[in-house]
Amino acid sequence: MKRFQFRLERLLRLKEQRKRQAELAQAQARQALDRARAEVASLLGQLAAAAEECARRVGRPLPAGEWLLRQDHVGRLRAALDAAEEGVRQAERNLAEADARRARAALEVEALTRLRQRQWEAWRRDADRAEQGQADELGMRRWQAGAEALAGGQSP
Fold this sequence. Notes:
CATH topology of the domain at 9-113: Helix Hairpins
Distance between the termini: 45 Å
Number of helices: 2
Largest sheet: none
CATH architecture of the domain at 9-113: Orthogonal Bundle
Number of strands: 0
Strand content: under 5%
């Protein structure tokens, strides 16, 4: 009997490669989300520090130029925070898409792997049957040869 060969092996290898690529893209998307969240946390910290500084100066005179600079600084921090929060939302969408692509790729690989396993099991059953048939035939030939030898040795 010829050896087992899965006709879709090349497709399975391609799907496995795409699954690995999807896993890599998923990891990169997760890292991008972590970076975006870290940026938001940093900007929130800077805003908190600016608010704390303003709270310490309450009741004390402040030059007009410095007040305008602080106000401008807080405004820029707020705009940067808004942009960073939008970056987090986009990174979350990208991660969800990467998760979905990886899940689809894994499902395709799993389906082909199960198909290959079923085909291998069917091939194995056929091979076992063929081997058993050969063993049965060999046993039958030996039995016939033995019976013929016995019959040939006896004369009527």
